[in-house]
TrEMBL record:
Keyword Zinc: no
Organism: Mesorhizobium muleiense
The protein's name in its UniProt record: Xaa-Pro dipeptidyl-peptidase C-terminal domain-containing protein
Gene3D superfamilies listed in its UniProt record: alpha-amino acid ester hydrolase ( Helical cap domain), alpha/beta hydrolase, Galactose-binding domain-like
InterPro entries in the cross-refs: AB_hydrolase_fold, CocE/Ser_esterase, Galactose-bd-like_sf, Xaa-Pro-like_dom, Xaa-Pro_dipept_C, Xaa-Pro_dipeptidyl-ppase/CocE
PANTHER family: COCE_NOND FAMILY, PUTATIVE (AFU_ORTHOLOGUE AFUA_7G00600)-RELATED, PEPTIDASE S9 PROLYL OLIGOPEPTIDASE
Domain Xaa-Pro dipeptidyl-peptidase C-terminal: 295-541
Amino acid sequence: MPRMKTITEFARKVVEFPDMGIVMPDGCRLSARVWMPADAADDPVPAILEHLPYRKRDGTIFRDQLTHPYFAGHGYASIRVDMRGNGDSEGLMDDEYSEQELQDACDVIAWAAAQPWCSGSVGMMGISWGGFNCLQTAAKQPPALKAVISLCSTVDRYADDIHYKGGCLLIENFGWASTMLSYSSRPPDPLLAGDNRWRDLWLTRLENQPFLAPLWLRHQHRDAYWKRGSICEDYSAIQAAVLSIGGWHDGYRNTISHLAANIEAPVKGIVGPWIHKYPHYAAPKPAIGFLQEALRWWDRWLKGIDTGVEADPAYRAYVMDSVRPARWHPERPGRWVAEADWPSPNIKAEAIELIPEGARPAIVASPQSCGLAGGEYFPFTFGPELPGDQRPDDALSVCFDQPVLTEAIDIVGAPEVLVRVSSDRPQANIAIRLCDVHPDGASELISYGVLNLTHRNSHEFPQALVPGEAVNARVVLDQCAYRVPSGHRLRIAVSNAYWPMIWPSPEPVRLDLSAATLKLPLRPLAQGDEVTFPTPEAAVPWATETVRAANSERHVDRDEKTGIVTLSIVDDFGEVRDLEHGLANGSVARETWAIHPDNPLSASGKTHWTQTLSRNGWSVRTETSAEMRSDAQNFIISARIEAYEGEELVFERNFEEKIPRDLL
């Protein structure tokens, strides 16, 4: 039996197993951290699985410490597994959401269900990567899996992830590949892997480490690569009960609506004002009692207790009030609304013609630097990552300002803009932002959408534009819930560049916009909270010592000699030491995104990550760097890993690849 410790009490005393080995059918050992009631062997309990590449020992430990002991104290075995090739697990990882990853999850579920301390019922949960793979695992229908809680996830790996959006190449495709190159470059902890073994596991991992950006770039259209794992291909495959949760300040805000509208199994959705975090400690506030809400879900579907979740509204959303634009909001005033059914008959689309019939076409020819006020795709750091005042981008866009509102409106749903447009180039992008304009002119982003116009009819089979020939297209903006007050006005801003959210077209483009219709989803004005949530609860926080405080910085600089505009980002995540096992870990991410306003081929992105681990004179460090640029025909990508033991360079590896552009 693996070593264990007694850690805390809720309803039941809890024991923790810091490194429980789970051996897969092919012999690969996965390392799991498991919490369960101390008496589970005599009184078996359901199990809850979270299956991630993010290192349970020093990566997600902050949130794990708040969450998993809490579930265990309320009668569950809570299992946090390092995916193969990451953290303290053996094996190698070759891609996100691979068949091996999903099979491992199914095998862990079967293993847990067969344990004497388990009742045989299993749930799976996760946020982001874990939110994705719990849905994809559910679609595999492992027999013991009865319920899922998926946060900040997607139903479509191509159209609504960090790779492509509206057929446009997201910068996050490169940025996230750079992040994973760094995350997965770290070794297992010698205290768990063994003094004579950790180094061999580390070097083998580094020798086989993929840099995933070239792989993802070789699939520029919605082909079989992206369809696999996209549960929107067959919603009926999900038979487990699904609770879907997200945040309006996160990049994954559409999934909740998609799941609530399409899954045939029991499903409920909750969207708050949060960034990319679990909502019991997320911001902007208000946070909610997520763990209590999760227990209601688990108790109903894993224990058969009538907790009333089936009578909950199908869709609960936080309608945010208008605020002054800022790069960070510690809280967002607003109110919770509830829809018994989703889609809701209470929400009506109002059509607003933006261009009068017979008017001359609007000419859209944005500088390539338009978009710098857009913020991060998925804000993460409780720092300056949110969209700022949109006026700098509005000035570089064609804007359609609506009359001043004489009464407030609640926008709830996904706005759409139907356009008729011609391009002077065979490939062109269009970006549309919906903004709340204050009486003094300040412009707050409500929602946005982008579309590669060659994808106007199909993401799988795009068609080049015929220069000068008008086409019809539908641009769907992200889901939102936002109150625009009386005295404000709506602005629809249209550009053909949105840097650095999307990679630019290979040539400067002029669009002639001859027709545009906004379809605005309006809900009767909410008078107050229509539902409430308990205040957050959690287990005892992670005990650490701060070695270096965290800090985030953003700077935009214009070189007046060259004209190059550069966004520089430094996210120092700090360094902390675990007060129990003594491991200190730290990381720093640096990014630069540069472009000339007149030249799309000047676009470049550079990243540099540093990861450190140390304990009692032992230390390792990895430095990963990457660069992306393009010419008219190709994307050019390079990367490098350096690994140090102490100050000695023990491993180095370079990546370089050129990938042809295909209507992108």
